[in-house]
Design a protein that fits this description.
325 residues; alpha/beta; 7-stranded antiparallel β-sheet; 7-stranded mixed β-sheet; 10 helices; globular
Length: 325
């Protein structure tokens, strides 16, 4: 309950100030039981404002009520979306141009606003997004302690960890779990585990959620973050510059990253990573993973699955596929 109140307070102080007009008024008047469960606020020009919470979609009324019927929700214009983007950019598009070009802006607290519109391309690269027609406000959540039940299975003695891959379909919390593992490995546990230096390659800003270069999520006292760089270059830079004991990254799977992952492991650096998937067997057949499995790179697998709607199941397997917990 304390966690839910903390989320509500963060939305009120960190997200609502960036909203404008009807949206700000409606979200401010939401019942607290709904506010604390919001995962996304989706704003589309000419379409009803939509909330994602309780693993369902609802449509927002101007008075702060929510409906299943989209016809009862209110809509926004392109001008209203443009006004909100200007506010999110703290009245300076120029200062946030690089973020806009990547399709999202991270605000204080680690919340991310995704943008969709018409990309302006020059020399094969996106240099701007104009006519922004959709915004997606993703609420940042830290669940400190969510790895407590399984963390001991990742320790190799008191000064080392197993190369670990977290596997789950989208939306089941693998990045949230990864953050908590990073934090624990970095901080250590008194009389149990010595903290290790962790280098994080945060290509899309979803692990650390940096705002003005500072991680908004707690990743521990021995963690260094490279933000906004592709995984291959980020891993290479960390190896050269920060001498990490562990390198961590989200959504492994690009075949171009394989050689660098092997380079990391051959250097004696451990890997903490996530991947989209349903199980170990299915992942083995995917391009980008075959070489890693052929080299027996992973010594631990954490598989997250959903049962009966809201019930999540988390299992830890060793490198041979034996269930540890």
């Amino acid at each position: 309950m304390q966690l839910k109140h903390a989320v509500t307070d963060r939305i009120i102080t960190e997200v609502i100030p960036y909203l404008t007009g009807k949206v700000k008024h409606a979200v401010s008047n939401l019942d607290k039981s709904i506010l604390q469960e919001i995962e996304e606020i989706r704003l589309r020009a000419g379409k009803p404002v939509m909330l994602s919470c309780f693993r369902k979609d609802f449509f927002l009324g101007e008075a702060g009520l929510v409906f299943n019927n989209p016809n009862k929700g209110f809509t926004l214009t392109m001008d209203e979306l443009a006004e909100m983007v200007f506010k999110i950019c703290e009245n300076s598009y120029y200062a946030y141009q690089d973020d806009i070009n990547k399709g999202f802006i991270t605000i204080k607290g680690g919340h991310r606003i995704g943008l969709a519109g018409t990309p302006v391309i020059e020399g094969g690269k996106i240099i701007n997004i104009r006519d922004i027609s959709s915004l997606n406000v993703r609420i940042a959540r830290e669940v400190t302690g969510c790895a407590d039940r399984i963390i001991k299975h990742l320790f190799k003695g008191s000064r080392d960890i197993f190369n670990t891959l977290i596997i789950s379909p989208p939306g089941l919390g693998k990045t949230t779990l990864l953050r908590d593992i990073i934090r624990t490995v970095s901080n250590g546990i008194i009389n149990v585990f010595d903290g290790l230096k962790v280098g994080v390659v945060d290509e899309r800003g979803e692990i650390a959620a940096c705002y003005r270069g500072i991680a908004q999520n707690d990743l521990g006292c021995r963690t260094d973050v490279i933000h906004g760089l592709c995984k291959k270059e980020g891993m290479e830079m960390l190896l050269r510059s920060m001498s990490p004991n562990v390198i961590s990254l989200d959504e492994l799977g690009n075949p171009n990253d394989v050689s660098t992952v092997l380079q990391v492991m051959n250097a004696g650096v451990r890997l903490l990573a996530t991947a989209h998937g349903y199980d170990v067997t299915g992942l083995k057949e995917r391009r980008g993973f075959k070489d890693l499995f052929a080299e027996n790179c992973f010594e631990r697998f954490i598989v997250i699955s959903a049962n009966n709607g809201f019930q999540y199941e988390m299992k830890v397997l060793d490198g041979e596929g034996n269930v540890l917990c």
